[in-house]
Amino acid sequence: MKQYKFINHTADLGIKVWGKSRENLFENAAWSMFDIMADLSKVEARDLIKVRIGQENIEELLADWLRDLLYRFTGEGYLLKDFKVKKINSQGLEAEVKGERLDLSRHSLKREIKAVTYHELEVKKTPKGWEAQVIFDI
Q1: Which of 26, 31, 40, 93 is deepest in the core (most CB within 10 A)?
Q2: pLDDT tens digit sequence for 65-86
Q3: What CATH number corresponds to the domain at position 60?
Q4: Among 78, 89, 19, 7, which Cα is nearest to 48's?
Q5: pTM of the model
Q6: Other residues' Cβ atoms within 10 Å of the Cβ of residue 83
Q7: Full residue range of the structural domain in which residue 78 is found
Q8: How far apart are CA 61 and CA 130, in angstroms?
Q9: How many domains does the chain have?
Q10: What span, in angstroms and rounded, lies between the C-alpha atoms of 47 and 88?
């Protein structure tokens, strides 16, 4: 199953993301965001980071998940590539992510993402699994 595709958006960058389960959808959304920002083939899954996010609304949870991971890059310098969402329930999300600190001598960046927006944010169950739409401020 294809993980994501770009969608037309006037000023920002939009994607549609798919997953077999909610957990898989969130993993694919995270991978897609980092794939847009960097060449993940050169990133090693060295460091393990545990992530917990409390939230009940599924759209807000997706936005907060991606914002947390984006901060791990912009604020802490981590390029992430492996995402394992352990559970999503009414209390929120628990996950483990892996990657390594950005090293410009080995890593190549592709595009800057400034923020995850609420604009046209959507998460829904489909006959084939789960689908989300996310717009990034670039």
Answers
A1: 26
A2: 999 999 999 999 999 999 999 9
A3: 3.55.10.10
A4: 78
A5: 0.92
A6: 23
A7: 4-137
A8: 14
A9: 1
A10: 23
